Amino acid sequence: MKKHILLSFLLIILAGTTSAQKFMHGVGTGVFINSGTGIHNSVPTILTYSPRINMVDRENFSVSVGLPFSVGFGSDYNLYSQNGSTEINSATTFAINVPLICNVNLGAGASKSSTKRTGFFAGAGFAYQYGSYVSRLYNNTTSEYVKFNADAWGPAANIGIRFAVGRKQKNIEARVSYMGSVTEHKISAIGIAALFNF
User: Fold this and answer.
1) Burial status of residue 145 (CB atoms within 10 A of its CB: 0-12, 13-18, 19 or more)
2) How many helices, marked H, and strands, marked E, lie in the chain?
3) Does residue 119 contact residue 164 with C-beta atoms inside 8 Å?
4) pLDDT per residue as tens digits for the range 91-139
5) How many folded domains does the chain comprise?
6) Which of these, 52, 60, 75, 102, could form a disulfide with 66 (CB 3.0-4.6 Å)?
7) Residue 182 forms part of a structural domain
8) How do 85-107 and 61-66 pair as beta strands?
9) 87 lies in which domain range?
């Protein structure tokens, strides 16, 4: 699965260099809400790079294939005190999420020639996620570390809106995404991100 996603990413970049008019990309930030079997629920902050190729390209309509991958890092800290005993539970999360998504794009951001000021997109595909989760449980007498690495892959979807800025159809994008795992760890990830598209 990793090789297929990496190959898809390389093909999108290669296609973009040979057809610059149909290649679009953006960068942004946001959060992931991660949950799953055997991991500490977490909300890492993410950085996102979102390249895509318009397979169908009209002024205010396009169908694109993209790989909006994200890298995230986050930590969580909880302190409990009861009957003179103090317990600390902390968790650190590192995650990489790589979806291959086919989107239908309307209005702003659909193509480089769009004249609309607002736009909309929605799509679906498949995603791969790697996560490293480290938990620490500490009380007055003991300290225990638990490290858990997990690969997950499964169906993915996203939806969002775009607002044009400037004269050359650059735009600001707000996106919500979801990935559900079909692997044994059943890890799901909800992403909320804002991007600037060039």
Assistant:
1) exposed
2) 1, 9
3) yes
4) 788 999 999 999 999 999 999 999 899 999 999 999 999 988 887 766 6
5) 1
6) 52
7) yes
8) antiparallel
9) 41-197
